[in-house]
From TrEMBL:
Species for this entry: marine sediment metagenome
Protein name: Uncharacterized protein
Length: 90
């Protein structure tokens, strides 16, 4: 499944529209994946991403995305050898 295809994004959006959601980004291009999927989240939904500060940093996340997400229990998602980004939709 290509996570960047519009059909895929629409399918995920339809799947989560009536439910609380947590989207886990672990594609090789999180700089693009995180902002794309942040847009389809609803208030209170979570977005997490693997390899934070290894494959991408907070500086790689567009300003628009940072205005709609905020950190969420980040310390609980960052365990040794696994750095995770954890954000919640405002």
């Amino acid at each position: 499944m290509n996570v960047f295809r519009p059909e895929t994004v629409k399918e995920v959006s339809n799947f989560i529209k009536d439910h609380r959601a947590m989207i886990f980004c672990d594609n090789g291009n999180k700089k693009n994946e995180v902002p794309l999927y942040a847009e389809i989240l609803k208030k209170g939904d979570l977005l997490t991403a693997h390899d934070f500060n290894a494959e991408f940093t907070i500086q790689d996340i567009p300003e628009r995305t940072l205005t709609i997400l905020e950190p969420y229990r980040q310390e609980e998602f960052s365990i040794p050898h696994t750095k995770m980004l954890s954000m919640i939709r405002k």
